[in-house]
Each structure stands twice: as structure tokens, then as C-alpha cells.
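User: Reviewer 2 asked us to show a designed sequence for the structure in our supplementary figure. I'm pasting the C-alpha cells here. Could you produce the per-position amino acids so we can include them in the response letter?
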């Protein structure tokens, strides 16, 4: 049986913009939150801080847990590429220090083209994954927004 991967993600918003990793596939440019796989013996917060450092090149302060998502690849549009992957994503509201240098980290994700600040008010215009985040990020402080999102994309 294949293990379920735990992947903490950072929601970093500054001046009405969301920091996202810029990626490319056969359909063109797409975006995702910084973060990645937790290693054995590492807390979720430690994993998130390490991943942001690797991908964004800066330190992050981990805040509240905002969203939890199951991602069972076979149920979604990337099933052909990701096969039997199953990932639990824990999305935390994070903060970087004002004036901190942000740029490609020492170990960017495979396929990472760079970073981009996407306008929160216009997220629907971008291929941000998971798709469900596009409207939810706008209401991140709203208590009626569910924390557990389910197996969604």
C-alpha cells in the first residue's frame, strides 16, 4: 500500500496579493501555493518553513490553519500524470517579514519557473490549484468558510 503524503502549504498575502509558485505544463502557465512534503521526524510547521525557504528563499512565520484538502489524484484532471497519488494538504496563513527578500530559493520545485504575486481580487483569472481556493482566499477570515474542503481540486 502506498503512503499518504502530508503537504503543508503557505498562504502568504501582502498588499492584496497572494504569493504563488509559477509553473508550466502542456496547457501553459499555472500556479500553486508554496510548500511541500513533510519529512519523517519533522513537524508540519518545520516542514512548511523548510519548503518556503527552499522555494521562496525567505523565512516564514506560520499562522493559523485555514484549509485542509484531500487530493486523491485518480478523481481529478491530473489522474494520467499523478496516478495513484494521495495527498493531505494543510494550508496555513503565513507571514513574511516586511522588506524580506523574496526570490527563487536554493531548491525550487521541479518545474518551478519562478514566483508571482497574484491579485486576490482576480484569482479566478489564473490557473491556481487547487481551484477551490480561488473564491475562498477572498474570504479567508470568514468563519463560515469550511476548514475541511474534501477531495477537491
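Assistant: Here is a per-position design you can include in the supplement:
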Amino acid at each position: 500500500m502506498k503512503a499518504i503524503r502530508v503537504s503543508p502549504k503557505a498562504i502568504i498575502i501582502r498588499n492584496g496579493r497572494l504569493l504563488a509558485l509559477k509553473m508550466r505544463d502542456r496547457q501553459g502557465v499555472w500556479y500553486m501555493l508554496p510548500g511541500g512534503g513533510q519529512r519523517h521526524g519533522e513537524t508540519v510547521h518545520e516542514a512548511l518553513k523548510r519548503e518556503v525557504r527552499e522555494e521562496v528563499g525567505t523565512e516564514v512565520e506560520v499562522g493559523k490553519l485555514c484549509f485542509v484538502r484531500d487530493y486523491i489524484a485518480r478523481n481529478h484532471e491530473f489522474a494520467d500524470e499523478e496516478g495513484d497519488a494521495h495527498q493531505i494538504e494543510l494550508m496555513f496563513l503565513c507571514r513574511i517579514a516586511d522588506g524580506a527578500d523574496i526570490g527563487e530559493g536554493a531548491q525550487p520545485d521541479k518545474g518551478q519557473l519562478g514566483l508571482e504575486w497574484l491579485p486576490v481580487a482576480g484569482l479566478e483569472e489564473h490557473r491556481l490549484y487547487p481551484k477551490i481556493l480561488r473564491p475562498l482566499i477572498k474570504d479567508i477570515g470568514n468563519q463560515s468558510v469550511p476548514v475541511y474542503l474534501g477531495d477537491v481540486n
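For the response letter, you might also mention the following. The helical segments are 44-56, 79-82, 133-136. The first strand starts at residue 5 and ends at 14.
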